[in-house]
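dude i think i finally got it to work??
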Amino acid sequence: MNKVLKHWSFLPTALVLFFWVAFMLLSRYPIRVDLTSDHRFTLSDKTSRLLTSLDAPLEIRIYLGENRKEVPLPSAYRQLNSEVDILMDNFRKHTPQAVIVNQVNLEESLPEKEALNAARKFPILHSTERGAERVISQVYPYAAIGYKGQQVVIDLTSSQAVSNDEDVAGSLANMEHRFYQGIAKLLRSSIPRIAIASGHGELSSGDGNTDLDDLGDLLGADAFFALDTLLIDNNKPTAIPESIDLLIIAQPKSPTFSDIALKSIDDFVMNGGNLMMFLDPCFLQPENRFKEFVVGIELGIEPLLSSYGLRLNKHLVQNFTCVRQELPTGGSLDGLSLEQTRQPEVKELLWPFFGLFDAEPNHPTGQLDAPILGRYASTFDIKHRRTGIEYTPLLTTSPYVNYFPEWNTISLAEYARDSFALSSFKGEQGVVGYLLEGEIPSHYDMMTKLNGVYRTSSSKVMIFADGDMVRGGLGEMGLNSTSEGQVRYGNRDFLRNCVEYILGEEDMIIQESTLRKDVYMDTERLSRTRSKWLWINFLTPLLSLLCMGGIVYYIRKQRAL
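look at this
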């Protein structure tokens, strides 16, 4: 020991040698320890099993544009890109075949850029500050996954409307699941087919009508479903192909469904097909700029609902939890000057007919981190609880609600407000959407067979009393801009969850436990603890030097003895 102490310079040399050897070993055989509370950098068991099952190379093309020349990638997307790289490293460790990752600069790959735009994968306009200048850059937050000649494009962000750093940061938690969804869909033995009904004034994306563009985006190439438009004839039976897995009837108006049309739908359900309907029992007829008359209509679908034990109420929901809308006020809300003002003021006011509804949190479809926006929605009642049917409320109103009856006038002066008194909402909580599972009875048999013996099917039926849930542009389904900032809605995620559940693909649904909400810095806490960390950063090197000096002094003192 004394010899070592006498040659005390051996100690730093040994430390340098030790750290050099450790560095070389770790460079050759890297070790990564995931210390995050939500295990962001550890693949889930189901993803590991999925990757292990691959028997061909996986090709992934990232379109963020890491090496952009014109405008550098914004910092939030650089972080997103880094996390993609980490995720791809984890994929390589769990995949028996090769994982080929290419960073694509769309400024140099125009054909792929045009293909993304054709698939409605539009760029995000991201605003960043560079000194005193604000720079707007286009970012394509998408990735293409290829396997055995097939390809699916996925979103790297949670919504196609994200435009700031916090929105991007909030997308990081679910990125692994989005890749899982894309790969799992490529491994399907067959592609599910979805038909959107037409023939009764429904919203449709098949004949140039763009009202259902969002639904098309939701169910098309992005989700890897085959999407068709199907005419349901009122005058002759429609043979709905058995290859159709799901029939969607979105906001029918007129003509009303005939018995022949209802039998076509009933035969489809009895043959194992799944059904999803978005219904509006009322429509609004404008009287002037400040009043709308609520008209109740017959859709012809009511007998089918009755066979399922449900009644569609002809009223409009006034929800305490609602959004602000730009409404003409005429400068006052007293109901007098409104009629006389030629150029009414436009003001953002709470509009209870545009309610924020709650999804069922204990059901897979309700695994969301944002409320559902409904517009002029209605509710259902269970008229007769049919034996064999399990009724699950998927979407409910606020506990504080009123119901506006049909054949009455809605006045902006009466119902638009800056704030509402909770005590003014006295109705009972209602159900806007139901899931029916179990033994679905045949409507046709119930109407024609008097002996009480009728066919049943194990199909799934989802019914919503709001046709506007699936109507509108990308922004309206995912994001809304108000004077209070941007508010995100869960419509897109909810509808995607519903479709995947009804098709038996629950594994595709992001579980609530993975929805991380504390994904960005707590600026208030950062400001509060700033001084502490400055002192820690200042004192730690000084204390380290003092400790090292003390050790050297002790060794030299021992050497002198």
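The first strand starts at residue 58 and ends at 62.
im so relieved honestly
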